[in-house]
Design a protein that fits this description.
Chain lengths: ~160, ~290
């Protein structure tokens, strides 16, 4: 009989209680159990960053995290970031700079960029490039994404 | 994939080692290696999965006498943010700066990197150069006991260590290098982020007038484990790092490595890299 774990955690500010198989990833839990499909399954190995979420204020690849390990922690997904002031700033900057093409990498990039700007308000280009090195985009060539994140970072630093 | 029959979340080292004593345990820390390895079928779960995140004895970075104690659960990001690591263990700090991506650095732990025992493990190369030792804890007869093992003896081969199944890696202890010790970590891959090293080098020394003292050199991804290069160190020790000495050091280094050809590089290319990059990092180190 596979082990099940009873877990309780905060998800986008709302308390959740769930029973999950011990071997399940946080990404599977978010998408398949909770229906939050903004977080994407890309590579499943932590290479692409499409599944980036915030856990206790730091970004992680949710494909590399056990769902059971979410117990007692604070999770924020793209659905939570999107309705924050930082998320709205980033979305506007991504649209204004044409930083979205197919859109698959966008949720992960926005979560990572929100964390980056939180840590480094007014981040310069080198800091932005380092900060998003764990997020792959196969459409834009990154230029427009870097411009968008820089614009959002600049706006944040002027607050 | 084998079924996990029990999921345990101990809250003390005594409890964690008691669970290990019962046997058949897979230890979970950051999960960044364990989850993809088990999903790909390269590693099979034991019936008990033990998440050690809430064991306080595995946390924290502290200077204790002449040693820096780094708890097994310390993440790569915590190492990067530590003034002690940056100031006194510079080559370890540099390796953390080259480690994977922000998302992985936030989750991956130094204990996990050590127990995963990759021949290319980024933190292993500087830790070996810095004469680190691991602290293994077990509870054979009612009381927690620890033993200290030099990293060079801990690592046995790719993915293999001398940790017994009933032992937990609790911490890694790094003796503070002598004052004036400076060095460089260099990792060669195809891109800066998220790459596994084709080769890596950690080299450090202390300048004493014109000559080098306390020379420490370690290599990654050129042998079944990360390795120290004692013959290369001996060539450089007490010598001025002139062109002839550097050439002799490279000659010695090429005799100490046993690189293989794989998807990341051919053995020939790895030899070329070791020779050229060793010369470069030694030249940099000598200018410090």
């Amino acid at each position: 009989m596979p082990a099940k774990c009873d877990i309780a955690f905060s998800l986008n500010g709302v308390k959740r209680e769930l029973t999950v198989p011990a071997g399940m990833s946080a990404l599977e839990m978010l998408r398949d159990r909770l229906g939050l499909t903004g977080t994407k399954y890309g590579c499943g190995e932590g290479e692409c960053g499409a599944c980036t979420i915030l856990v206790d204020g730091s970004t992680v690849n949710s494909c590399l995290m056990f769902a059971a390990d979410c117990d007692g922690r604070e999770l924020v997904t793209i659905e939570g970031v999107a309705v924050s002031a930082a998320g709205e700033r980033l979305r506007d900057a991504f649209v204004a700079n044409g930083a979205v093409q197919c859109g698959f990498c966008t949720p992960g990039l926005m979560v990572q960029a929100s964390h980056l700007i939180e840590r480094h308000p007014g981040a310069d280009e080198a800091t932005i490039r380092r900060g998003i090195e764990g997020n792959l985009c196969r459409c834009t060539g990154y230029r427009k994404i870097i411009d968008a994140v820089a614009a959002a970072a600049k706006e944040k630093s002027h607050e | 994939m084998a079924d996990i029959e029990r999921y345990k979340t101990p809250t003390s080292l005594a409890e964690a080692t008691e669970i290990l004593r019962a046997g058949n345990v897979t230890v979970l820390a950051g999960g960044t290696d364990l989850l993809p390895q088990t999903q790909a079928g390269r590693v099979h779960f034991q019936p008990t999965l033990m998440n050690v995140r809430r064991v306080p004895e595995l946390q924290g970075i502290a200077e204790e006498g002449a040693v820096v104690r780094i708890g097994a659960l310390v993440t790569i990001t915590e190492l990067l943010e530590s003034a002690l690591v940056r100031g006194r263990l510079g080559i370890l700090w540099q390796a953390c700066d080259h480690f994977a991506s922000d998302q992985i650095r936030n989750a991956a732990t130094v204990g996990g990197n050590l127990c995963n025992a990759s021949p290319a493990g980024d933190t292993l190369v500087p830790l070996l150069a810095l004469d680190a030792r691991v602290v293994l804890a077990a509870k054979p007869d009612g009381a927690v006991q620890t033993r200290r093992v030099p990293l060079a003896e801990f690592l046995l081969g790719p993915g293999r260590t001398c940790r017994a199944p009933t032992e937990l890696l609790a911490a890694v202890e790094v003796p503070l290098p002598p004052a004036g010790f400076a060095g460089e970590f260099y990792k060669h891959g195809t891109r800066p982020g998220l790459d596994i090293a084709a080769i890596s080098i950690a080299a450090g020394a202390r300048r004493d007038g014109a000559v080098l003292r306390d020379v420490r050199i370690a290599f990654g991804a050129v042998a079944p484990t990360v390795i120290r290069a004692p013959r290369t160190e001996a060539v450089l020790e007490g010598r001025a790092p002139d062109a002839a000495t550097l050439a002799a050091a490279v000659h010695a280094a090429l005799g100490e490595i046993q690189p293989i050809s794989d998807v990341r590089a051919s053995d020939w290319y790895r030899r070329e890299l070791i020779g050229n990059i060793l010369k470069r990092v030694l030249t940099h180190a000598c200018q410090m």
